[in-house]
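Input record (one chain):
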Amino acid sequence: MWNDNLVKTVTIMRNFSRAGYEGDWALHLFASEAILPYFRFAGCHNYARYGAFYVHKMKGLNPEMMKILQQGAFVRHIPAVYNSTWTDIFIETTYMRLGHGPSGTTGVAINYHQMMKWALSFAITGEVSQHVLAMSTNKQHTHHTHHKEESESRIKVDKADRLRLCNTLDICIYLDGDSHRDGALMNIVTGQIAHPDVNAYDAVSLGQRAMTNFKAGWPRSFYDPLGTLVVTMDVTKKYMVVGEERVYDQELIYIHVTRVYMQIIG
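The corresponding structure, as predicted from the sequence alone:
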């Protein structure tokens, strides 16, 4: 379950991020489609519904447009390694940065026509800036041949993160299937044993089947309700209030005391 629900999810997200930074359109579509079952079983229904439609439309683009995107036209390229930026993100951040500057939108933000004129002027000003830069002998850009994550300081920070994760897992309950009934799922922090109805270990396959059935009924089924697939564990409350008194969960107290005792003698 850890491999399917955590490790593979992180790998897909890394591929999606890499596709944007490197302008890899094929990897972008692959990661976008791979994450859809996870959206579905996690209850992110709008992401699952419209994400599937997005992938379907992008795969059906005409060859000319597909070729342009495969050449990296969906990102803004910056002279460096692993340094491209999604066009929509670049536009948004540029508007935010310049909008708060001296020639920004202060005082005109509530006027629709002035805002429209200000926004549409970027196409002209950007082209003029490029021509001025081309005529200038002043080099504005520095070419980097190494990614910042390869620096010594980043490597040390990553190592410290791994050690902290290992230390956190060391104080959790050991994942021994023989220690609880029928190999049921267990919360490694609280020690809570999962109810037999819990099916989180099968979440990915449930999401994959649900997405297949969802797309099989298009276009008629596109707006059909998407129900809940996965039954998860409920987190045990530390206490509940009865009248004016706090009543604590004795089983939870026992679990925590046992864990502290094992740390002391271990």
